[in-house]
Amino acid sequence: MIDVRRLTKRYGDRTAVDGLTFTVQPGQVTGFLGPNGAGKSTTMRMIIGLDRPTSGSVTVNGKRYDRHRAPLTEIGSLLEARSVHPGRSAFAHLTALAHTHGIPRRRVDEVIELAGLTSVAHKRAGAFSLGMGQRLGIAAALLGDPQIVMLDEPVNGLDPEGVLWVRTLLSGLAAEGRTVMLSSHLMSETALIADHLVVIGRGRLLADTTVDAFVQEAGGRGVRVATTEPERLRALLSGPGVAITSTTAEHLVVDGMDSRRIGALAAQHGVPLYELTPQTVSLEEAFMELTRDAVEYQSTTAATLRAA
Ligand SMILES: Nc1ncnc2c1ncn2[C@@H]1O[C@H](COP(=O)(O)OP(=O)(O)OP(=O)(O)O)[C@@H](O)[C@H]1O
């Protein structure tokens, strides 16, 4: 488990992380989301002790990262996919890492296979595609067989097959009871991989929710119905908690009743329908709405900086 308590990080007069509190639970994949500059990388750096909090605390399996005797076996992370010497092979890179952390050689072969790198393991990492580089970064994160895996933008730049691979890998790790956290600035992509979401903007917590709840909330915008008898349908559906608006002579948008119930009532009373569509907001739109103020703040800051 990762436990973040009132975590704050200031760089001069800029507050990158602002009193953030959340936990990342084992047995599920948690998506850590926020627009660019929201403070995701800064938070992740503090989790693994690469940055010191200005105030607040963060523990990894109950202890500060640097208090663990073998941190790589507690939490494996991918923060900089390209932190590999370009002249080294994937095999040499992983072997060196394993050696300096007392990890047995056979684990190198295991993670190479797990990451699908067997055929390129002895090629120079400098010649790797972005996707191969990401796979190597993930292989390194898994080297210590850690209980916690934390990946910064692991699907950034991956093709659909690569995204599917990451998804299968991470849900497999979560199913084994591990704690899995991944950051992204793309909601739709994250919703496919994660079970839980922690959303931040301007360094502050905006949402801590399940993906299901977020999707449900994003989808609740009524049902569009088309009928040749709009007045009869309107009378049938009217009642407490139901709001009906007309969009054209034959189209209604019904809020407060699901499409199944509308269809059943119309059929029962012989009202012909030729469209019955639940209105959905795309996840990306819902995410943008949630983080809008945070983004506006960012662009205002950028505008102020430009003006100065
Ligand atoms: N070393 C630093 N010195 C000064 N400011 C910093 C430093 N690191 C980050 N920041 C600022 O802190 C804020 C948060 O940055 P951070 O990189 O954590 O955001 P992010 O959510 O990871 O963004 P992205 O999705 O673009 O990676 C930004 O405004 C950034 O400019």
From TrEMBL:
GO molecular function of the protein, one example? Answer: ATP binding
User: What keywords is this UniProt entry annotated with?
Assistant: ATP-binding, Nucleotide-binding, Transport
SUPFAM superfamilies, per the entry = P-loop containing nucleoside triphosphate hydrolases (SSF52540)
Record carries keyword Lipid biosynthesis: no
Q: Which residues form the ABC transporter domain?
A: 2-227
UniProt superkingdom? Bacteria
Report the Gene3D superfamilies cross-referenced here: P-loop containing nucleotide triphosphate hydrolases
Q: Which family does it belong to?
A: Belongs to the ABC transporter superfamily.
Q: What is this protein called?
A: ATP-binding cassette domain-containing protein
Please give the organism: Streptomyces tuirus
